[in-house]
Amino acid sequence: MKNRVVVKVGSSSITIDGTINHEQLEKLTTQIAYLTRKGFEVVLVSSGAVAAGLGRLHWERETLTLPQKQAAAAVGQGLLMHRYEQLFQCEGLHVAQILLTSEDVSDRKRYINAKNTFQTLLQNGIIPIVNENDTVAVDEIKFGDNDRLAALVTAVVEADALLLLTDIDGLYTDNPKENPDAKKIDIIEAIDESVQKMAKGAGSKAGTGGMATKIEAARIATLSGATVTIANGSLPWVLKRLFIEKELIGTKFLPAKETMKHKKQWLAFASKAQGKIYIDSGATQAIHQNNKSLLLAGLRNISGDFCAGSVIEICTEEGLVIGKGISGLSSGELRMLLKEETLPKGVIVVHKNDLFIV
User: Fold this and answer.
1) Is 124 annotated as contributing to ligand binding?
2) How much is the pTM?
3) 287-323 per-position pLDDT tens digit
4) Tens digits of per-residue pLDDT, 313-355?
5) Backbone φ and ψ of 311, nearest 5°
6) Secretion signal: which residues (predicted)?
7) Is 170 annotated as a binding residue?
8) Is 214 known as a binding-site position?
9) Does the annotation list 36 as a binding residue?
10) Is 211 annotated as a binding residue?
11) Any known ligand binding at 114?
């Protein structure tokens, strides 16, 4: 056990009336410092840049254009990091700012570089503070991707646990603000369709994410082998109670029974496909049920232009996406081979070790 945890704090937990909630921020940093003194390595994924910037600029969120939101993020990120640095310095700790976009993790080399950077920081007792690069990352502002970002960071750093701090107490059977009979769920053993249906529960005004994004984050992180907890960030000493005293707080998602290897985690959740290939039913069965590599003989069509080593989507002849993989050949090479009257035998298009099946 590495005692390595990722803590994601939402805007609603560290801002108030559109400005930084200094009291909550101090409580959070005090708790993280306490964990580090107990031998934990902590990565902090912090929202709040947009909200902090809006407060400084006296702008109203509801009337802003996307460029204005991104400008607010640029202002707010500096304010947020300055305060984090001050607070952690009082605890004798150094911090490092890491701003990421999806492109930083979709490229395999950049993903590995990020992994090495995190590893170096943690080995030297430095607390990485991560945020989506709101100034350029359109998707984050539209979809609240910091929950997903936290899950991907959990996979990158091979953390034991992910804690999603928000302003609600956990996952409920229904929206507790609308249904007084809604019950909080303490433990989720597996994320299935019934769990995803519960994600219509309460969301937050300050941020852009809701319970649905947290469930998706939990799915990614549990498949990486981590335990995930959704809890209320305003609870006193929530980090100590959860990680030191092992108290059951919020909703806990247990690690998946079958976890993914790191390369397949990247393929499944971080990589972006550069093209598509379409395969017949025999090839579908071979890779889906028999854990075989995808051979040229099962290939029927190709879409897009891609190089050898690119990530591609694998589809049935009808167009249903059934997986992703790293192509061993370029689209041009594959098209040339398909034109031959007799296909060469044993040519591997995607090796089974480079294959993720949905």
Assistant:
1) no
2) 0.87
3) 988 889 999 999 999 999 999 999 999 999 999 999 9
4) 999 999 999 999 999 999 999 999 999 888 888 999 999 999 9
5) -85, 135
6) none
7) no
8) yes
9) no
10) yes
11) no
